[in-house]
Fold each of these.
Amino acid sequence: MNQFDIAVIPGDGIGKEVVPAAIQVLETAAQIHGGIKWNFTSFPWSCEYYLEHGRMMPVDGINTLKQFDQIFLGAVGMPQLVPDHISLWELLVKIRRECEQSINVRPAKLLRGLTSPLKDPIPFDFVVVRENSEGEYSQIGGLMHSDDDEIAIQNAVFTKKQTVKAMNFAFELAKMRRKAVTSATKSNGIVYSMPFWDKTFQKVGAAYEDIQQNSVHIDALCAFFVMKPHQFDVIVASNLFGDILTDLGGAIMGSIGIAPSANLNVERKYPSMFEPVHGSAPDIAGQGIANPMGQIWTAKEMLDFLGYDEIGSLVLGAIEDTLVSGVNTRDLGGTATTLEVTEEVIKNILKKG
Ligand code: NAI
Ligand code: MG
């Protein structure tokens, strides 16, 4: 029996609805496998917590989290009451950075039973590997002057260490998949960091002769995600490019409520954090109609990372069976509630298991 201590942060809005759903699924997976035991500990850190305590998490919050094997997070954000840069930087980004979760992995796949907004899509199945700790998302820069003379300077940071790490991860992942890596670049417009990115891609790629590799400018790549997503296997991208590409990846799947994401500490020194791509969806929060599939697929990503790929595949298969059966939430054109979809997914796991 393997025991896992999981820190659970439901967060705000629909996070509090979809996280319990996915936890039920994880319990079902453990029941079927027989060799997994989850110890879940829930933390109320969120915007609600901020309104009460003046901070998103306690001072020693990061140290507390570091005691756990993994972190399972819903979504944070109450944009009417707490500015998004506070909820993002003081909780999510803080955890990603201090737990050195320097790789963000986001798969996109045309699932059975899901209608993509693309017309007659050829089935696609790709993974975006996003550098998660630096790049365009730095706190280096500043503001000067005011009124008509106002100046904003925002620096981007690309270290060889993190760039190589993201690229190695992408190549290793491609080895186990369809053996192709595409690098997202923009070296025609960004003259220092992107040529550096390209040069590093070539150097890292030299050790992976059996893997097909090419570089595509980010603007063209966005267009290709719409025109021919089936041609991609693994895409490696900087922090900003990866962020943008993965929303598009989620969109072509059919709903942002489906897309999963994993922030990995590849060295396994600190916990990794698993969270869906979507946010707290204040517009539908509290109604019991949020799609739990993104959070459930995120649970599958955690199972995979822990080495339980077989159970992970079973969970994704059960999501697809549920989509096919038509038990869908409103974002997918159905009328089912979060609870009903969760029950159907669990039923389908038990059928397969
Ligand atoms: P959002 O993802 O929360 O919502 C965008 C749209 O998609 C909304 O119409 C929402 O109803 C719908 N949607 C999202 N997830 C859904 C689901 N599971 N089922 C059904 N419909 C779903 O993005 P938005 O509105 O830009 O941000 C809302 C708040 O969430 C903000 O405070 C933002 O900062 C935060 N946010 C947090 C993230 C995180 O915690 N990782 C990620 C993205 C946004
Ligand atoms: Mg994003």
Note: The two ends are 18 Å apart (CA to CA).
Amino acid sequence: MATSGILQHIGATPLVPLLRIGQGLAMPVLVKCEHLNPGGSIKDRIAVAIVDDAEARGVLRSGMTLVEATAGNTGVGLALVAAARGYGLVCVMPAKMSADKRVALASLGAEVIITPNAPPSSPENFRSVAARLAAERGWFLTDQFRNPANIRAHEQTTAVEILAQTRGRVGAFVAGAGTGGTITGVGRRLKAAWPNVRVVLADPVGSVLADWVETGVFGPDGAYAVEGIGASEPPANLHRDVIDSAERVTDEESFAMVRRLVQEEGLLVGGSAGTNVVAALRVAARGDCDGPVVTVLPDGLDRYRATPWVQAWATAPRP
Ligand code: PMP
């Protein structure tokens, strides 16, 4: 089915320099404002791409129900697409995700199923539950962690836009990985255009992925509060061969950076944007790359209003 209405306005997001936070660094830092997508996140791109691909392959037919394991943003993107194209939507979400995201999904008409914060091997894990429901009920599993249409969406849209917006000159691309779609798709396409580009994973402390990128062996698995990135095992859509190095970022560093992005740059972004920018600033400060450092701001602050780290801003003095 043709993409129409609001779905046409997914992507084509601004790429802007960090004018204040990025001052005095060896390389400029440019941030891609994915929080300005219609559904408020970078995941709108993959939602429409996955549905387009499934429709084209004939595996998704009108009236069917979509089911996804989601930290929230893919669910919101899928809700936009489901509304525009007449599909049902069920989102399976781990309990750790913000209450704002649950409310957003339910208000968009999705059925929300909350699972315990269980490891991937557990039948209670959000991905296991989504796969089981798809098999039992005949729902279409959009499967963002494995579906190659996720990576393709970033190769064909996010990366192409970055190349046009930088006139093809990118020193480094920095991003966290939830499904891995962003860093794999953008990284691969940028390297095809300009082999010198460095691709850097921004990883929360507590995720196993940074060690895995550097050594091939999983790091220690711990708890962290940043949502949507990091993992306790690498997802299929995260391709290690595309990534050159990793930066480890604590929750405190990520959330302090979000506050600076909001209050110094006017960028109303979520926690993983903080992680990405902390890592991008380190790469830009070292200056060992040939051009500007580009990163993404995956979603917006609105999705986190009820979290303890945003609530604390009201009482804690401005840093
Ligand atoms: N940040 C947020 C807030 C997200 O929801 C996601 C997706 N899980 C990401 C970053 C990571 O994107 P990707 O799935 O493409 O790795």
Note: Strands lie at 15-17, 29-32, 65-69, 88-94, 111-115, 140-141, 172-175, 198-204, 245-249, 293-296.
Amino acid sequence: MISFNQVNKTYSGGFLALKNVSFNLAAGEMAFLTGHSGAGKSTLLKLISLMEKPSSGSIQINNTDLAKVGYKQVPFMRRKIGMIFQNHNLLMDRTVFDNVSLPLIIEGYSPKEIRKRVEAALEKVHLSDKQKCYPKMLSGGEQQRVGIARAVVNKPPILLADEPTGNLDPKLSLDIIRLFEEFNAVGTSVLIATHDLGLIARMKYRTLTLKSGTMITDGIVDGLTTDEAM
Ligand code: ADP
């Protein structure tokens, strides 16, 4: 599903953010991506979502080599990927319904289809009763769930999350990860970037660890081992 082969990323200015990174994430797999701030987690996610290009090496998504994706095809590739951010990037002057419907409006779905899909997405994140609310009327955990509903509303096969629990307490963080598990259980591939080692240790999922741009571990590790590694 996602395949990195000896990927390097040097930003303009010469900073080497990823060094010789190789890994595969199979269809239907769920994994964590961890490492200290500045280790290269966001860079790796941006390469998958075609927001940045590798300096060398190759990346394949669903057997498509990203180097061969022309700029006109970029929106089509991005539709396969749902992105979730730490600060959820919601439009504060729009209702929950409007926020979640945005990707479908951009794709030109009919109002009837939009209503059906938005209601289904909000049901999946347990927010059916909040459709008409504005984000500021919701708790931090609920706002993050709206962000997740927006990411899944067009049913992408891949979900990428960048520090999705960064602003949440441990109980709410676990709720968010459980939601990812529900999407993973129906076949969605999930990659979650987080530096929350406590959360990772509790979940026992495959964990890719970056240190200064190098992938130093890949496997199921306990929190202590990961901490020592970093
Ligand atoms: P993380 O998500 O693990 O905190 P990032 O991928 O955001 O790490 O950053 C990795 C390194 O690349 C950092 O040192 C950061 O300063 C640098 N970096 C990130 N984006 C850019 C950019 N657009 N231009 C130059 N350097 C960048």
Note: Residues 223-228 have pLDDT under 50 and may be disordered.
Amino acid sequence: MLALHAPHGPSHLPRKDPPMKLPRQFYKPLAVGAPEPLRELPVRLERMIHFVPPHLEKLRAKVPQLAREVDVVLGNLEDAIPADAKDTARKGFIEMAQATDFGATGLWTRINALNSPWMLDDVTEIVAAIGNKLDVVMVPKVDGEWDIHYLDQLLAQLEARHAVKKPILLHAILETAEGVKNVEAIAAASPRMQGISLGPADLAASRAMKTTRVGGGHPDYKVLADPDASGGSRAAYQQDLWHYTLGKMVDACATAGIKPFYGPFGDFADGDACEAQFRNAFLMGCAGAWSLHPSQVTIAKRVFSPDPGEVAFARRILDAMPDGTGAVMIDGKMQDDATWKQAKVVVDLAQLVAAKDPAMAAIYGF
Ligand code: GLV
Ligand code: MG
């Protein structure tokens, strides 16, 4: 019999790159009266995004003090907040935002997932009440650029309605397999995109990874040294479960001009492992990580502030090559235009840290 349809329809074709808006359209407000989208991200120190459960009055009371100690305070409305406390958490977040002077510290919230019964109230009530104070909305379980487009339009409408003066930015959590597949399109989906965090717990579940840990390594993810003739025991080397995803996320963010972050580390008692994971993220390009416990604030500060020895060496490179070109040797190490740029990354970050922290400024010698 004659086949009426080709056996492989268009759905079997590989996905083409999603159509992008023309540059001129990309930076137009999406609603009449909404603020102009930003062309550059605000320059901010964001070494740790500190999670606060705002339904708990006792923890809300600590926020004014916390705002002086961390770089970002985030009111968490999503996972870890019980279903029957979702409304209290939202109201508690609004209350703490109104009651606190955050100064240069960022004010963020993590809203509930787009398909949840709470997300619409999260966004509409929060923008209405504190739209002019809120810096960033963290969006969980982002699967593709369509999730960002939806919030982009919704926020523009709400900003216009509530006379919000500067655009509220968006931060996606990379925590579904589909999101990882689409991470480049997510990073470039809107001028509102501030950054992306790796969410290792949901991502592990989404991929059916066989681990119950929240971030960090796993002793069973390892390679063995070759056997030797003596037949003795073989050394095992633990590998980083998150290396591939982190690398993919960092490249997507750097390409789009936004910031990558490591997400949560669940074992509060294992500060060493938390520090190792954060440091890998820092070295690979991340700007910061989440802190879920006060001990992790200290770790994040230590890790995401550049090492004073590195800063001193980087300054010597910049001093030796004032216009950033040519080649010089410093302590036997070759320096050129590329290492000048590496040094600039380190020194720029140190200057940001120093501007916030006089003790670090003294250590860096600024
Ligand atoms: C964070 O939300 C995670 O799922 O790891
Ligand atoms: Mg999650």
Note: Residues 79, 140, 173, 175, 199, 201-202 surround magnesium ion (ligand 2) (CB under 6 Å).
